[in-house]
Task: structure prediction
Amino acid sequence: MGDLGVRRVVARCDPRNEASLRLLERLGLRCEAHHLQGATFRTGADGEPIWHDTSGYALLAEEWDGPSRA
Result:
């Protein structure tokens, strides 16, 4: 991350997506938040947004060791 001049990397994903959560943790990001109804990508038949929870993950540049091989 230091090569890119990045101080902080953040990611959000659906907490029901366990594979994505495992990948973020394997990359060294930590869970910092759980947002209730934090994102919408679709609308229902009535045209209203369908909201779902999101998990927020982050990593600081000084914490980056590269992806683990576990």
User: Anything to note?
Assistant: The chain has a mean pLDDT of 89. The CA atoms of residues 25 and 31 lie 8 Å apart.
